[in-house]
Design brief:
Layout (H helix, E strand, L loop, with lengths): L8 E3 L2 E3 L3 E3 L16 H12 L4 E8 L19 H11 L5 E7 L9 E4 L12 E4 L2 H21 L3 E6 L4 H6 L14 H19 L5 E8 L8 H13 L4 E6 L20 H8 L6 E3 L6 H9 L5 E4 L1 H5 L3 H6 L14 H8 L15 H4 L10 E5 L3 H12 L3 E5 L7 H6 L8 H15 L2 E3 L6 H6 L4 E4 L3 E3 L13 E4 H5 L8 E5 L3 H11 L4 E5 L11 H13 L3 E3 L3 E6 L2 E6 L2 E5 L4 E4 L3 E3 L13 E4 L9 H14 L1
Parallel strand pairs: 3-4, 3-12, 4-5, 5-8, 6-7, 8-9, 9-10, 10-11, 11-12, 13-14, 13-16, 14-15, 16-27, 18-25, 19-20, 19-25, 20-21
Antiparallel strand pairs: 1-2, 17-26, 22-23, 23-24
The structure holds flavin mononucleotide and iron/sulfur cluster.
Length: 641
């Protein structure tokens, strides 16, 4: 029983029914052309309110058009936003949740081409464009914009606001010495750098009254040179408490930091908890922690050990809106797990696309899904292949009430994803496979292992539809000398499945995600690894957050990477290639691991001609791509039949 996590807590003059907070996420959908919220955003929040969370935040509430972080975020800078916000609050608050807005100005981290900031210093990463230093009058006006926006939130019925003072956005830019080199009353000393924040708080309190709760998200560490540090947060926290702040939400990282705000699967769980723990020693108001807190038991232990008073979850609530309720009931295995890939969520929004989730394609589609009807005719569905696409399709068909049988040629389920999960730091990929396996078990879906799709099977179970989720396999390229070499010639699948030993010195051909994680897998075993990538960039199909940690690992493992490679020929024990205009010869290698293109496995499609049953292709069998397509196509096909 998670007694501490599900105990109530006072936040200012409010009471949250539990200690779970859905952190602000700029999801980049659900607004109209004037950035007023639409049904899409409302239903996204309604779904999560139904899921049982205690407190919830709208992300990216823009206080000024010139500080919009991303194009499709809700605006709070004009009274015209109020009617739609009121409607949203009314519909969301039907589900016993404290509902707030995070107010922010992006400053130099805005997506806009022309940005303002304390000083004319561009952000070190992610965004490009011109940055202009704010005039004093503009700073005062912006403080007042925060106040006006908070007033609009209160008038719309929200319970509280949170100021975004973290992650390198405008307030954080004022606080941090590396982004604020002003010499007036807003720069220099600690007091001057925090002046903007206190002026904002005062302006809000004047406009909303002091009883309207204000929380603050603040970095415990920017993790960047000459940035804001834990000692600064510890110094500021009691001052914020004195100013009447209702809670402190401690996070970390800015654009370009060494530890990322939204860490990928390589990062330990609870990576910022130590920051909240330290801040908590210096204040009485509730302190919230965040960052890769994935398992409910972990959240419970953070609170029971006194490290924080509340736990915020971001991506876990994208992956499963009903996480809180399932955790409360102790149904941990039913929680659809975030796998920390960062691809469907933050990678998408930073590319200015709508946010989604690799394991939950329903994100952003809640307003469509709520009116979905169950199928009028239940059918028998035969799914060939128990990789992620097959398992996801089986679950979705079974949830709709269809009878589902899965046949899998191999002894085990999981397909190539279970091999990818063997690479260092990527074990969490297994979590989603285990989730599907348990769901199928509970739904009574039969999986026949060591069983190929056949006409006999189609007839035996009297299938109405056949779904081919038979996956893909590595392609062998035709390159001079490759088939004559004395080196061991293997594929990434052979290596990851432990079928083939490769010796000490290895060439990996291919710099996509599979090539790099295979290289990491080998380097982790102490092998000397060279990656030859014939493309111009590495692992483009990964999110930049996930790729960042992998690149750091490859550096530590001394893996040598070449891109834009043109191979002259493979030799008996090496390779001759051209890269960066230079011809390079390597000798003394033991193996070449092929990890370039994948080909769909579709042999079973031939059976379609011999039966009247309709066949459908999904996932890699349709076209080899990443997990996001596998799961979304699986759910789509089940929803369409
Ligand atoms: C798509 C996306 C958008 C985000 N936008 C915001 C934001 O607007 N404000 C903010 O404070 N944090 C934002 N975050 C960070 C999250 O609130 C959270 O701190 C982070 O994801 C780490 O927590 P988690 O591991 O539980 O996801 C965003 C995260 C994601 C995935
Ligand atoms: S896209 Fe990946 S990291 Fe983002 S919420 Fe979904 S599973 Fe988690």
């Amino acid at each position: 029983m998670l007694t501490r996590l599900f105990s109530p807590i006072r936040i200012g003059n409010l009471t949250s029914k539990n200690r779970l907070l859905m952190s602000a996420m700029s999801i980049n959908f659900g607004v109209d052309e004037n950035c007023c919220v639409t049904d899409q955003l409302v239903e996204y929040f309604v779904e999560r309110a139904k899921g049982g969370v205690g407190m919830m935040l709208v992300g990216g509430g823009s206080v000024h058009p010139g500080g919009q972080e991303l194009p499709d975020l809700p605006q709070m800078y004009n009274d015209s936003c109020i009617p739609a916000l009121k409607d949203m609050v009314q519909r969301v608050k039907a589900y016993d949740v404290l509902f707030g807005v995070q107010l922010m100005h992006g400053g130099r981290q805005s997506y806009l081409p022309q940005k303002v900031a304390p000083s004319a210093i561009p952000a070190p990463a992610v965004v490009k464009g011109e940055v202009r230093a704010l005039e004093i009058a503009e700073i005062k006006e912006l403080a007042s914009c925060f106040g006006d926006s908070a007033r609009r939130c209160r008038d719309s019925g929200f319970d509280f606001v949170e100021l975004h003072g973290a992650h390198g956005y405008l307030i954080n830019q004022f606080l941090a010495p590396n982004s604020n080199i002003r010499t007036d009353e807003y720069g220099g000393s600690f007091e001057n750098r925090s002046r903007f924040l206190f002026e904002i708080i005062e302006d809000i309190q004047t406009k909303t009254g002091k009883d309207f709760p204000i929380g603050i998200r603040i970095n415990g560490n920017d993790y960047i040179e000459n940035g804001w540090e834990l000692k600064d947060t510890v110094r500021l926290a009691p001052l914020l408490e004195k100013a009447g702040i209702a809670y402190l939400h401690v996070s970390g990282g800015v654009y370009g930091s060494t530890e990322l705000t939204i860490p990928s699967m390589y990062t330990p769980h609870g990576c910022f908890v130590h920051l909240a723990e330290e801040v908590k020693k210096h204040v009485q108001i509730p302190v919230v922690t965040v960052g890769r807190i994935k398992y409910p038991e972990h959240a419970e232990s953070i609170i029971s050990e006194g490290k924080a008073d509340m736990v915020a979850f971001g991506r876990s609530f994208l992956a499963d809106p009903y996480y809180p309720e399932k955790a409360r009931k102790g149904e941990f295995a039913k929680i659809r797990p975030c796998i920390g890939c960062c691809l469907g969520c933050i990678h998408a929004v930073l590319a200015k696309e709508p946010g989604s989730c690799v394991v939950n394609p329903g994100v952003g589609r809640e307003y469509k899904l709520k009116d979905e009807k169950l199928p009028s005719r239940l059918q028998t569905i035969l799914i060939a292949g128990a990789g992620p696409a097959g398992l996801a399709a089986a679950r979705q068909f079974a949830l709709k009430g269809h009878k589902v049988v899965v046949c899998e040629k191999k002894q085990d389920s999981g397909g190539l994803l279970s091999l990818a999960a063997k690479a260092p730091g990527r074990g969490e990929l297994d979590d989603i496979l285990n989730f599907f396996r348990k769901e199928l078990d509970a739904l009574g879906v039969e999986i026949r292992h060591n069983t190929e799709l056949s006409l006999d099977l189609i007839h035996e179970i009297q299938a109405d539809q056949v779904i081919l989720a038979t996956g893909s396999m590595p392609d062998m390229p035709v390159i001079k000398g490759l088939f004559q070499t004395k080196m061991n010639l293997v594929t990434n699948v052979d290596v990851m499945s432990g079928k083939e030993a490769v010796g000490k010195n290895v060439i990996v051909l291919g710099g996509g995600m599979t090539g790099l994680i295979t290289a990491d897998f080998l380097a982790d075993q102490g092998k000397k690894v060279v990656v030859l990538n014939r493309k111009k960039s590495f692992a483009e199909e990964m999110s930049s957050n996930d790729r960042y940690y992998l690149r750091e690992r490859l550096k530590k493992g001394k893996v040598v990477l070449y891109k834009n490679v043109s191979i002259r020929q493979f030799t008996d024990d090496g390779v001759v290639f051209k890269a960066n205009g230079e011809e390079i010869t390597f000798t003394g290698f033991d193996a070449v691991v092929i990890s370039e293109k994948q080909s769909s496995i579709r042999d079973a499609k031939d059976l379609e001609k011999m039966t009247s049953v309709k066949f459908h292709l999904i996932g890699d069998a349709k076209s080899p791509r990443h997990l996001m397509y596998c799961i979304s196509e699986a759910e789509e096909i089940a929803d369409s039949i």
